[in-house]
Specification:
Peptide Deformylase
Amino acid sequence: MALRNILIHPDPRLKKVATPVTTVNDDLRRLADDMLETMYDAPGIGLAAPQVAVMSRMLVMDCAKEDDATPEPMVLINPEVTWRSEEQNVYEEGCLSIPEQYAEVERPTEVEVIWTELDGQARRERFDGLWATCVQHEIDHLDGKLFIDYLKPLKRQMITRKMQKLKREMARG
């Protein structure tokens, strides 16, 4: 397994719609392993393939984050929300592509998602709480949408300027 570089906003690749995965093979399984290692190392609870410059519809997540919790890594290939609850929930979201910036985002409290597993099997599950927020956030990445796109323009511009400054500082090393 290898750590991958995480793209930092603004990067045009983060605004592109990812391409559906057509075959589940060893390369895809290796990418999933790399993404999980990168996500845990960051540390984060979710990571979408476009965030590591791979324009494929795949994401990884693990919202079991209490210190004594057993990891529950999930890999979702071509995930799609098939149902959303009427009830909304507000979470303070962050993003590995927008480091150290957080904002409250309102999303459906529960969602049902279908996807393909790494073994090629179709899967359907209903998520709630943090898992629901995370899977919606990551699927947004696959559609070229960032959590800051839910914010008012002024707050979004402020965060974008901070990220541009961070990228300049990182480039200078």
